[in-house]
Amino acid sequence: MAAALQILPCLPRALLRLLPRRGLVTQVTSTMALPEQARRLFESTVGAVLPGPMLHRVLALDPTGKLLKVRDRSFQLRNNLYMVGFGKAVLGMAAAAEELLSQHLVQGVISVPKGIRAAVERAGKQEMLLKPHSRVQVFEGAENNLPDRDALRAALAIRQLAEGLTADDLLLVLISGGGSALLPAPIPPVTLEEKQMLTKLLAARGATIQELNTIRKAMSQLKGGGLAQAAYPAQVVSLILSDVVGDPVEVIASGPTVASAHNVQDCLHILNRYGLRAALPRSVKTVLARADSDPHGPHTCGHVLNVIIGSNLLALAEAQRQAEALGFRAVVLSAAMQGDVKSVAQFYGLLARVVGACLTPLGAGASAEEHIELHRLAAELHVPDLQLEKALEAVTGAQGPVCLMVGGEPTVQLQGSGRGGRNQELALRVGVELGQQPLGPVEALFLSGATDGQDGPTEAAGAWVTSELASQAAAEGLDVTTFLDQNDSHTFFCRLRGGEHLLYTGLTGTNVMDAHLLLLRLQ
Ligand SMILES: Nc1ncnc2c1ncn2[C@@H]1O[C@H](COP(=O)(O)OP(=O)(O)OP(=O)(O)O)[C@@H](O)[C@H]1O
Ligand SMILES: O=C(O)[C@H](O)CO
């Protein structure tokens, strides 16, 4: 397991208190190396969306202690509260909910990633752990984010709890990213292995999370509203920490408390698109054929309240505040970056060039062609909330360092059999792009990290690079292209300068997609 969790959201604030004047702060931070600043900013991004505080923002008990308030709705509590949960951030969410509601809690079951309790304990994050004699049963499973037998056992226990509820009961459902793999309950005759294989193939061929989860829903007893249906007639309140661009409740963890609006045709289109239709196991065909006559219809979720409690945007907003405290001119460019890592890397490479040119005192700025090309790349990525113009305006004339912040989740089309994750691969590709840009006296650093602390099936959260990457690699005899062809970014970074470019946080206990930071300053 990676080094202990080190979330230090308060550190720059403490620094600020000691040094209230901006000039002084800038002086101190400018002596701090860019990698150190980038690591701190990533830590504050994660620290802003730790599950406990997120939960407390939406849940409260009224003074009598008998009414649960969820935003503007109220629910009667009379020894009738049950809790289930699944996802990478659910342990901390459950601990916070237990802390607040333990006197009403009858029983709970949660499904969380393998090793999360040990990681949280090692990091000294006691507030993310359940009480010693908790009424909440914990299952750990889904190693490397793939559904397994342990997760299946958890899903069955969750289904059993839900099915036993009555109209007097209230079911609190805690949901976060990673929930799909932690709640596998394939519809027979589909087996766990078949579902695992299909998910893996779709992900490896670059399917989006929307596509992946459409298929998962069609194969599952609990996804796509199935859990809500199992809990009926109890009232259901789902608290959701979003790890999907745009916070679509029907996609996050495959929407177990949201009626699925997809039909078999949608599934067949997706399977066709990724060349998987012909080779489908017979069991999958059987379930798809049945699905249209037995959907978890929209009428089944009227007893449910779905509430988004936190997202990537919130994390970036905090990181922006921290970056400003460190003396950067900080801009959030988007919380919805998507697309293939190759195109995303080209965009960031050119963005560094264009923004870098704004920082050079007597520089002529970037050329009109470069601006046009940057906008073309941006348009190709179809990022719904991209603030490119606003960002360029904001950094024009910046005297000091600049920090551009982006959230989202690009995709990788796996071709090789190497080890890596989309953050490490993106960082490696951006490193190559930075090396090809004429940045002159501008120092550039790019960091990409998974807020859950685990990038793909590796123990690193991500990596950071500078424009020196290509020359550093060459000096150590590492051929970047070969590593990229093999999707072997993790091995590359392990070998580069003894692994110093890798980002290790350990499992963070939260999950709001990835964060990309581009830091630029004059040398
Ligand atoms: N060798 C590799 N190189 C690059 N990317 C990889 C590699 N192996 C797996 N991936 C990518 O990692 C992604 C899975 O990563 P991870 O397990 O962190 O999922 P996630 O999307 O963060 O999960 P969740 O959203 O469920 O929390 C897949 O999209 C896959 O394409
Ligand atoms: O679990 C999942 O389906 C993904 O993390 C998206 O929420």
From TrEMBL:
Superkingdom of source: Eukaryota
GO molecular function: ATP binding; glycerate kinase activity
Pfam entry (one): DUF4147
GO-annotated cellular components: cytoplasm
The MOFRL domain, residue ranges: 402-514
Keyword field: ATP-binding, Kinase, Nucleotide-binding, Transferase
MOFRL-associated domain residues: 38-288
EC identifiers of the protein: 2.7.1.31
Residues of the signal peptide: none
Top EC category: transferase
Reaction(s) the record says it catalyses: (R)-glycerate + ATP = (2R)-3-phosphoglycerate + ADP + H(+)
Family the UniProt entry places it in: Belongs to the glycerate kinase type-2 family.
Name the UniProt record assigns to this protein: Glycerate kinase
Native source organism of the sequence: Chrysochloris asiatica (Cape golden mole)
